[in-house]
Each structure stands twice: as structure tokens, then as C-alpha cells.
Amino acid sequence: MKALLRWIGYSAILLLSLKAPLYAQDAPAVRYAQLRVDSSGGHNRAIAANAFKKPDIAADNTLNAADIDEDNYLQKVADLDVYGKKHDARPIASLLKSNQLEAITSDKKRSHKFYYHMANIFARLRMYSLAMKCYFKTLQVEDEHVGAHLTDSVAVDSSYIPEGKSIFLRANLLSDASVAGLLAINQADEQMIIADSNSYEHTSREVKSPPVRLANIIDPFDDGKKASAYAMLIHISQPVSGKRRIFVKLSKVGHTFITLIKYNADSTSVSRSFGFYPKKEHFLSATPLFPTTASVFKNDEQHGWDETVGKFISERRFKRILKVIKQYDQKNYNLNKNNCTDFGLSLASTAGISILYTKGSWPLGSGNNPASAGQSVLEGKVLNTDNRYGLFICNDLVQLESQEIRAKNQDK
User: Fold this and answer.
1) Residues 6 or more apart from 65 whose CB is under 8 A from it?
2) What is the tens place of the pLDDT at every residue in 262-317?
3) Contact by Cβ (8 Å): 93, 25
4) Whole-prediction pTM value?
5) In this structure, are strands 307-313 and 227-237 parallel, antiparallel, or unpaired?
6) Domain ranges within the chain, ordered by starting residue
7) CA–CA separation, 83 vs 38, rounded Å?
8) Half-sphere exposure for 392 (CA within 13 Å, toward CB)
9) Which helix (H) or strand (E) holds 10?
10) pLDDT one-digit tens code per residue, 11-22
11) 353: which strand partners?
């Protein structure tokens, strides 16, 4: 009888553990409220409690009345932190010219919220080097830990605070410049923002990605300049934004691509966004009937996405990623086992990012795919496998009522 009761108890524990959600994504340095579930039905699954969102900025009652302008300024920035695929850099350029910027960034609490919003905004504007710069400023930094010099990337202590967040060190890279200083938004960045705001507006219609040679991806990082930090982002465009729907009419299957960034000690940076594509040999190439074909890299710097996961990485990991990219240059594309998502997940894994439950099936085949990978990011099923540097997670979902419009624009 005791053995039977013990077996029942073990079975109950096992069942409960299997039902427990796998929410392992890193939380931001400053916690905000949950991501809203779209009332129109854009999300059909619960969003992880620690998922990123546009925060609701409420007035801080402890602030003096004289500070109300800074609160209004921060609210204007928060109002621009929205998703929906149509983004414009002009309002940001105007806000950054404001004389309130210095006041916002001088206050620690407001500064964290400001840079959190700006990281999301710049990511959606596809200014990824700026996005990661801003994200760096939301990480918890211990000023008193000095003297540890960077050897290959942003320094981080192996100890952890009670909340489980890694403690970042504001280590001196050079005698007159800290990591935070090297990753500060500088005049060149401001000029890029202004130029972007005067040149184009990001809309829901995709820009066709042109082919790019391996040398044009790899060689720019070998610029002879001393690096201060490295970063990588994986971007996922789902066939249907916010849903685990693997394909639409077999022709719309989504896409996964990555961005690599090298930050130099002279405050310059090198960034490349690209993906792994089939080089179609005939009409049915890279379809369930003929899943294998030649491959080609394409420049995805203007490609849209629904979910993005980014991270600062070491020089060692960065070089490993470059080796993996070179290996893929010699590989064929296969819809079932070597597609764009396999490529992105392989590089993400090398960077210490693991996205769970990324596989699904389709007629005559199965494998990793953007729909499953993107939805796992939304559900918080993301692991930071080396427990270092933290994860930047940003969404740019399309509301349900905009799905048909988006599909029509992509078909034009």
C-alpha cells in the first residue's frame, strides 16, 4: 500500500513539472508591467509575465513640481515605443534635440526608462547598433567595481544579485574612456538619426533583400580597429504576426535573420544584417517537393520582423559565429533541416541564446521555422545559456486587423 501511495505521489509531482511553463528569458534591469494581450485577438496565447512591453509611465509622486516637464518628456518617448511595423524617425530626432534630454539621463530612474524605450524604438527603426547601445544603459552597473580591464568584450562579474541578474562592471577599457562612455550615443549617431528621419519612413511593405557576398559580410569587421564590445541579434518574421501558424498558402513562410555588431574603441561601429536564403534553381526549388537547393546570403538590413532577441557577446564567441557563417557559405539550403531558421538558431546558440520549441510540420516535411521560433520568444521560452550579459527582447507585432493589409502589401 505504501509503495502504491509513493508511486501516486511521484506521478503527481511529475505531471505538475511537465505542466509548468518554461519561462527562462532574462528579465530587464528595470521591471515593467506585462505585455498587453491584444483584445482584437492578435495573440491567441498568454504572454510570459516577464516579457517586454511598452511600459505605462505614471507620474512619480515623490518628484517635485518643477520636474513635471521631464515627466512629460519621458511620456512622449514612451508614446513612441509602440509596435505595428510603421515607424518614423522624425519624432525621435526632434525629441533628442530637446534641452530636456540631459535632465532625463541625469536621473537614474528616468534614465533607465528612457534608454529602455529608446532601445525598443531604435530596434524597430532597424538602427540596431543604437538599440544595443541604449540597452547597455539599462543593465545594472556597479561603479565601485573598477580596475577589471576588458580583454575581449564588455566585462561582467560572475556573481549574481538576489534577483538573479548579472552584475555588470563599468570597467576601464582605456585610461580615459569607460565602456559606458564608448557605448554612449555620440554625434555620429545623432547625425544618423537625423539622416534617417529625412530619407525614408519604415512602412509595413517589405524592401526586397538583395544578395550579398560572404566577403561583404565578414571583411568589414576586420577594420584594423580595437574593439570595445560585440553584439548579436536574431530577428524573426512570422508568417502571421503573433501566431504559431507555420505558413499561409504555402508561399508565405516567414524569415529568420541575424545582425552582427562590432563597437570600436574610437566610438565607430560596424553592423551587418543578413539571412540565409534558397538560391532557386527552378520554380519548385526549396518547396516540400524539392526541399534542397543552392543557397545565398542576402542583405536584410531593411527586412521587417516580429520578434528580436539580442545580446552582448565576447570576442571569442563573435569569432566562432564568423566561422559558422563561413561554413554555411558552403552548404545547400534545405527546407526541412537547413533553412533560414536553422541558420539563425545556430548562430544564436553560438552566442549563448537558445530558443525552445522551434519545430513544426508542413505537407511532406517538418523542421525549425519562423512561426514556432517567434511564438516561443513571445511566450518567454528563451534561455540565456551562459548566464552572462543579459538578453534584449523586443517585439514589433502587427495587430490582427492589419494582417490582410500587410499580406496584400507583401504580395505587390
Assistant:
1) none
2) 999 888 899 999 999 999 888 899 999 999 999 999 999 999 999 999 999 999 99
3) no
4) 0.74
5) antiparallel
6) 207-412
7) 12
8) 33
9) helix 2-19
10) 554 443 333 332
11) 384
